[in-house]
Design brief:
By secondary structure, the chain is α/β, with parallel strands linked by helices. It has three domains: 129 residues, 3-Layer(aba) Sandwich (Trna Endonuclease, Chain: A, domain 1), CATH 3.40.1350; 55 residues, no CATH class; 75 residues, no CATH class. It has a five-stranded mixed sheet with strand order 1-2-3-4-5. β3, α2 and β4 form a beta-alpha-beta unit. α4 packs antiparallel against α5, α7 packs across α9 and α9 runs parallel beside α11. The longest helix is centred in the middle third of the chain and has 18 residues.
Length: 283
């Protein structure tokens, strides 16, 4: 799962999100901008740098690292890059701080003794996503970070909950980016499913999904009913691990669109064809 790109998008959309993780954020946190920078001689590529606004007073520069796999040289690289960049830009900033985001403590570099001075100071702040608390109690931005760590069996339910919160809490113009992020996180988690199938799994309104926008843009003549049936059959085939009979496919194809939308949610609980047949019989 390419979590780096997820967090990069999160920080691009809302740089102040990083400071929600810190106990002592800067007073002007909302004015920071997120960027990636290159440090030459030698050249380092630092992907996550939070730059303070350009004002008369030098601000604090923050370096971030999202680390979901153990890297026994992480601190060597992080401090080398951060200190060199700070050295090259000493007149622009008054101080620096590094923030490392881990899914849990078990991912952290095991031999960190040479960096104990930094680790035991305010210079480095370590965040463990599994210790932030209940995903449903967190601010929406932090909840998206935690969603990247949720196990597959729980992820769809939590993702649907976050989608509901997005519709309720976020203005329509801004909600699209969050919905796309939630969908992308789930696409990375369920690599065996297509994006359109993930969108159905999440219960996103069909007219809002990317696949329907593409159908419309390409001028296809495929109707909404037919497209919905095809997507649901594909999703059921992958979830149940076997092809549906022609009779069962025909039954599904004759369901009204509103019933199909109900099926797209109910199928998440199916473990066999018998479950599907029982649901169809009940209709």
């Amino acid at each position: 799962m390419r979590r780096d790109s997820i967090f990069y998008k999160l920080f691009q959309q809302s740089p102040s999100l990083l400071f929600e993780l810190l106990t002592n954020p800067p007073a002007n946190a909302d004015n920071y901008r997120f960027d990636s920078v290159a440090v030459k001689e030698p050249k380092f590529e630092i992907d996550g740098v939070f730059l303070p606004p350009d004002t008369a007073d030098a601000g604090v520069v923050y370096f971030s690292e999202v680390q979901f796999q153990r890297d026994e040289m992480l601190y060597e690289r992080l401090f080398a890059e951060s200190l060199l960049y700070f050295y090259r830009n000493r007149m622009r900033y008054s101080d620096w701080q590094a923030v490392v985001i881990y899914p849990s403590r078990s991912t952290e570099q095991s031999n960190s003794y040479p960096y104990r001075a930094f680790l035991n100071s305010e210079q480095l702040y370590r965040v463990y996503l599994d210790e932030l608390g209940d995903i449903r109690e967190l601010p929406l931005g932090l909840a998206l970070m935690v969603l990247t760590t949720i196990e597959e069996d729980q992820a769809p339910e939590e993702a649907r909950y976050l989608l509901t919160r997005t519709y309720e809490e976020v203005p329509q113009l801004s909600s699209r980016a969050i919905i796309e992020l939630i969908t992308t996180i789930m696409v990375y988690k369920f690599e065996q499913l297509s994006r359109s199938e993930v969108e159905i799994m999440l219960g996103i309104t069909l007219q809002q999904t990317r696949v329907y926008r593409e159908i419309k843009e390409e001028g296809r003549q495929e109707g909404e009913q037919e497209a919905t049936v095809k997507l649901i059959v594909r999703l059921l085939t992958k979830l149940l691990g076997q092809e549906l009979s022609e009779e069962m496919q025909a039954t599904i194809s004759h369901l009204p669109l509103t019933v199909l939308e109900n099926l797209s949610v109910a199928l998440l609980d199916f473990t066999s064809l018998a479950d599907l047949q029982a649901w169809l019989d009940a209709q």
